[in-house]
Amino acid sequence: MSFEWKKNLKRLTPYVPGEQPGAENIIKLNTNENPYPPSLGVLSAIEHFDTDSYRKYPDPEASVLTGAIARTYSVDADQVFVGVGSDDVLGMSFLTFFNGGDPVLFPDITYSFYEVWGGLYGIPFEKKSLRDDFTIDREDYTGTNGGIVIANPNAPTSISMQLYDIEYIVKNNPSSVVIIDEAYIDFGGETALPLVDRYDNVLVVRTFSKSRSMAGARIGFAVGCKELIGALCTTKFSYNSYTIDSLTIQIGAAVLADDVYFEVIRKKIIETRDWTSEKLKGMGFDVLPSDTNFLFVTKPGINAKAVFEALKKRDIYVRYFDKPRVSDYLRITIGTDEEMKKVIKVLEEIV
Ligand code: PMP
């Protein structure tokens, strides 16, 4: 029998997320999650949650959460858009702003979801090669384009770009939307948030998944001028009005109120990252300069895939990308001090 739907099927190449193994006692350093628990504000928000409110649809504007984000980052509430993780916000942004015939530009080595959204929405894109040292050349982003996306710091390279280079790209593309994906910015690098009030074509995208230990809650947001945020809302209300559930709205706001804890775990991860980086360098690894909660490393003469497999056998999960230019590298998320000491010890044994 021939099924018409199969002929009509949209053929996609999906994003491949890192493994989420179920086994206990593994050291999981493969998806850039935070090793520390989220703020106790989560518990308190759950305790105070009025379960009767689940009868009703959530606030489609998620005003309590957008308001809390606006206060935290000193912008107006109508300059904030929230979504189900920054993936949702980024996907919605591709759908909203990248609609022309000219290609959207992003680096050849970057967050691989960008090209997946290009494929999903039929948006032409062009990948610009990073320099040999894996830095971004701002001059690659001054030609004709239908939009620009830069992860800053970039992933999986962990390297950040200077704010004046970002501003150069934003300034030189007044008729394109430039998205700055700041998933890792709390671990280093300079935020592009100050550009939002000066340029009407820049959108800064952030997440609660990494620095706020909330990957499971799925909260991401964008900050931009009112017009860009309004356009994102129009897309959202043309697709699914209720993206964030009532409890997550409260939890997100409660987590933002706890900046003391946020600072403690953020600094702790930076300290552990720098310790791990020095140890690895001492063992002969090349470690790219990281402004993130992960390290991108290689060592002359090693087979990165074999090391990745050997670590896995020892219950240590890191990330390996079998892709051009990066197939000799491993991406290692920063865990607790104990976890990183174990990683170093095991690497000393197997490398
Ligand atoms: N941007 C980058 C660069 C990332 O690495 C990730 C995490 N995979 C995301 C966005 C999406 O994160 P989330 O949807 O959890 O906010």
Describe it:
With 351 residues, this protein is an alpha/beta fold. It contains eleven helices and twelve strands. The strands form four sheets. It has a five-stranded mixed beta sheet, with helices on both faces. A three-stranded antiparallel beta sheet has the order 9-10-12. The chain has a two-stranded parallel ribbon with strand order 1-11. Helix 2 (41-47) packs across helix 8 (246-257). The longest helix has 24 residues, at 259-282. The chain is globular, with a radius of gyration of 21 Å. 4'-deoxy-4'-aminopyridoxal-5'-phosphate binds next to helix 4.
Q: Sheet with the most strands?
A: 5 strands, mixed
* Strand composition percent: 5-15%
Rg on CA atoms, Å? 21 Å
* Spatial strand sequence of the major β-sheet: 2-8-7-6-5
User: Helix share of residues?
Assistant: 25-40%
- How far is the first residue's CA from the last residue's CA? 54 Å
Number of helices: 11
The structure class reads alpha/beta
Q: Per the principal axes of the C-alpha atoms, what is the gross shape?
A: globular
Q: Uncertain runs with pLDDT below 50, 5 residues or more?
A: none
Bound molecules: 4'-deoxy-4'-aminopyridoxal-5'-phosphate
Mean pLDDT: 97
The helix/strand order is: HEHHEHEHEEHEEEHHHEEHEEH
What's the total number of strands? Answer: 12
